[in-house]
Design brief:
- By secondary structure, this protein is of the alpha+beta class.
- The protein has a single domain, classed as Thiol Ester Dehydrase, Chain A (Roll).
- Helix content is about 30%, strand content about 40%.
- The chain has three helices and six strands, in the order ααββαββββ.
- It has a six-stranded antiparallel sheet with strand order 1-2-4-5-6-3.
- A hairpin with a 4-residue loop joins strand 5 and strand 6.
- The chain is globular.
């Protein structure tokens, strides 16, 4: 498959997933870029995403990273589902901050893939480091 075909397949897979992904739409996340094994999403932290300490709830950071993982891991055209994930939060985000999740494939075999997702504020400060392992099925995304 050529690079152009791979990118076209990745975009088609993400478009298909987004069609029914109410949660990613609720987050307000938009796709910045997608290619085989990679995806970048961006969103703005809204008032209802703030916890009792006035900071972005960690679940929001997790959710953005998880959506980026889903799109990156399914971008090769076969349905992949997460089987293990973790998140470290080295700094906080606040209401009004734009945060960006950059997911990339570390390695991918026939059945298992490993991904890393960095979540950063627009000033480049890291607010989340997410790791995910996926199981790759034989079923096509589209």
């Amino acid at each position: 498959m050529s690079d152009a075909q791979g990118v076209a397949q990745a975009r088609l897979a993400v478009e298909r997933m987004l069609r029914d992904d109410e949660f990613t739409r609720w987050l307000g996340a938009s796709v910045v870029s997608v290619e085989p094994g990679r995806c970048t999403l961006e969103m703005t932290v809204r008032p209802e995403m703030i916890n009792g300490f006035g900071l972005c709830h960690g679940g929001v950071i997790y959710s953005l990273a998880d959506s980026a993982l889903a799109f990156a891991s399914n971008s090769r055209g076969r349905i992949a589902v997460s089987i293990d994930t973790s998140l470290s939060i080295p700094a906080s985000a606040a209401e009004g901050d734009t945060i960006r999740a950059v997911a990339h494939e570390i390695d991918r075999g026939e059945k298992i893939g490993h991904y890393s997702v960095s979540v950063m504020k627009s000033n480049g400060e890291l607010v989340g480091l997410f790791k995910g392992t996926v199981y790759v099925t034989t079923k096509p995304v589209v």
